[in-house]
């Protein structure tokens, strides 16, 4: 946990960007079922689009929703494009989201995902949001949560963007711990079908549309190691019934390799980049992947 905190502190030092002066975060209480006592902050720009999109933005271990808002560029992008951002905050001591317990890894099972879904539903109702434009993103613990949320609620989210995460179910434990060393070290390796079955088991019987996925990872990540990117790709290509061979490969920046799998899954591998991978411009690429750059 200390290594993640240190990594995040460095990240914040690199990318803190002032937000617009007029609009500000507002804390909301009594937003619905919230079994793990999450806090909610909402960012509503001054100029909200008609039937705005809703972005669930999930922080890293040791952080908070306000920390994530202040340290990333999503707020400025919301000012530009008129979507609403929902920021959950963990209140347990380690400030990590639950991606390990059996309750968290199934639809409406309890723990953090239930509270976050209450937040999304509250935002949709309060701001007249478009239920066809709901998305989720996060860094580190928030990236792991992104994978969990799209597995638990594929009928809610249109897409997810996970920055340095692990596959849904990879962090599962049966001893009450929220940390899974084998997964963090990239040693939980499964077939695409096995990973796909884990994601599908979160919502048994669901046969509808599945969220598109954008997956980011640095090759030098020493907190959640790089093999996890390949396992995420295996999971979501299988969920979408796609082969694991990319349909295209390009290099959007000098040290990036982007692989696309049809129009449903894309991975961005960042050469010699560690866990502190989210730098200027990456949030915009996620927003563009979602389609939130259109009002």
UniProtKB/TrEMBL annotation:
InterPro entries assigned: AB_hydrolase_fold (IPR029058), Esterase_phb (IPR010126), Plant_Biomass_Hydrol_Est (IPR050955)
What does UniProt give as the signal peptide span? 1-22
Record's keyword annotation contains Nucleus: no
Keyword list (alphabetical) reads: Hydrolase, Signal
Top-level taxon of origin: Bacteria
| UniProt xrefs under PANTHER family | FERULOYL ESTERASE, UNNAMED PRODUCT-RELATED
Q: What is this protein called?
A: PHB depolymerase family esterase
């Amino acid at each position: 946990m200390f290594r993640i905190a240190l990594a995040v502190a460095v990240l914040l030092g690199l990318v803190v960007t002032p937000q617009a002066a007029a609009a500000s975060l507002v804390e909301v209480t009594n937003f619905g079922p919230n079994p793990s006592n999450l806090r909610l902050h909402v960012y509503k720009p001054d100029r909200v689009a008609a039937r705005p999109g809703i972005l669930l933005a999930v922080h890293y271990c040791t952080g908070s929703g306000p920390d994530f808002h202040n340290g990333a560029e999503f707020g400025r992008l919301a000012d530009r494009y008129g979507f609403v951002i929902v920021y959950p905050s963990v209140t347990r001591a380690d400030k990590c989201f639950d991606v390990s317990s059996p309750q968290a890894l199934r639809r409406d099972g309890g723990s953090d995902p239930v509270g976050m879904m209450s937040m999304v539903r509250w935002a949709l109702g309060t701001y007249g949001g478009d239920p066809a434009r709901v998305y989720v993103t996060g860094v580190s613990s928030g990236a792991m949560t992104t994978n969990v949320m799209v597995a638990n609620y594929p009928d809610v989210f249109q897409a997810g963007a996970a920055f340095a995460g692990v596959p849904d179910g990879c962090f599962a434990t049966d001893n009450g711990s929220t940390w899974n060393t084998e997964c963090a070290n990239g040693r939980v390796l499964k077939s695409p079908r096995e990973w796909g079955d884990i994601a599908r088991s979160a919502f048994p019987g669901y046969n509808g549309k599945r969220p598109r996925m954008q997956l980011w990872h640095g090759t030098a990540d020493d907190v959640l190691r790089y093999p996890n990117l390949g396992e995420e790709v295996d999971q979501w290509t299988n969920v979408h019934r796609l082969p694991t061979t990319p349909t295209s490969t390009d290099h959007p920046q000098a040290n990036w390799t982007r692989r696309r799998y049809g129009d449903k899954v894309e991975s961005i591998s960042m050469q010699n980049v560690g866990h502190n991978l989210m730098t200027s411009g990456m949030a915009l690429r996620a927003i563009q992947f979602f389609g939130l750059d259109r009002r």
